[in-house]
Amino acid sequence: MPTEGVWISPSGVKTVIPLENNPEVFTSLLHDLGLSTELGFYDVYSIDDASLLAMIPRPTHALIFITPAKMYYASRKEDGIPCDMALEDMTYNKTGDDPILWFRQTIGNACGLYALIHSVANGQGKQYVQRDSLLDRLFTEAKPLQPEQRAKVLYDSEELERAHMRAALKGDSVPPPAENHPALHFIAYVKGQDGHLWELEGATDGPVDRGLLPPEDDVLSPRALELGIRRFLNHAEGNPNFSIVALSNKD
């Protein structure tokens, strides 16, 4: 039986209340799922002002970029990256974490949840996932599977559903009903075990390799920002309605 507040769409898709774009909500949810309390999310107020960037503890293990739909689709079109594909049309079929563990999004309104999961399933963040936690169990089960079966691991997890809904009811704003679909996209950036910057979102045909980073660079380095987030900001057209949060060790 679905958790209270979860909506099943007319097409039969489980749909949840979206997460508020709030570092405290993100941090609370990941701790609830089994991430060490040593890590937390921080607002990135500017990627151009050195004094504001200095407020973020380094190294940064992951970034989550929240972009409005117009900016998102303009960038995807320019890069020739298909998105919003039907599961049966996907070509990505990797198993394992080769070198990235990626999940196709099949839960409606859960863009934020998938970005959070991608941010700690990969890179340095995964070292802080506590043994035998829900995250650890989900990743262990999903890792050897093909994308369709891997997506089902998250979709069918009642524990994950309940944890998400607890977090979705927190924050500073009134939670919208699950039937509402926000026009925002959540994209995670991590540095993979291969040293590459990876762009992870459940609506694309697999993870997007944005290129090799120098060994000393984290995901908030100038090179990483140029390869990743700035590609979207080139299409901002003066729209300030985007945000960035960073996953780092707590001070």
From TrEMBL:
<keyword id="KW-0833">Ubl conjugation pathway</keyword>
<dbReference type="GO" id="GO:0004843">
    <property type="term" value="F:cysteine-type deubiquitinase activity"/>
</dbReference>
<dbReference type="GO" id="GO:0016579">
    <property type="term" value="P:protein deubiquitination"/>
</dbReference>
<dbReference type="Pfam" id="PF01088">
    <property type="entry name" value="Peptidase_C12"/>
</dbReference>
<keyword id="KW-0645">Protease</keyword>
<dbReference type="InterPro" id="IPR057254">
    <property type="entry name" value="UCH_AS"/>
</dbReference>
<dbReference type="GO" id="GO:0005737">
    <property type="term" value="C:cytoplasm"/>
</dbReference>
<dbReference type="InterPro" id="IPR038765">
    <property type="entry name" value="Papain-like_cys_pep_sf"/>
</dbReference>
<keyword id="KW-0378">Hydrolase</keyword>
<dbReference type="InterPro" id="IPR001578">
    <property type="entry name" value="Peptidase_C12_UCH"/>
</dbReference>
<dbReference type="GO" id="GO:0006511">
    <property type="term" value="P:ubiquitin-dependent protein catabolic process"/>
</dbReference>
<protein>
    <recommendedName>
        <fullName>Ubiquitin carboxyl-terminal hydrolase</fullName>
        <ecNumber>3.4.19.12</ecNumber>
    </recommendedName>
</protein>
<feature type="domain" description="UCH catalytic">
    <location>
        <begin position="15"/>
        <end position="249"/>
    </location>
</feature>
<dbReference type="InterPro" id="IPR036959">
    <property type="entry name" value="Peptidase_C12_UCH_sf"/>
</dbReference>
<keyword id="KW-0788">Thiol protease</keyword>
<comment type="similarity">
    <text>Belongs to the peptidase C12 family.</text>
</comment>
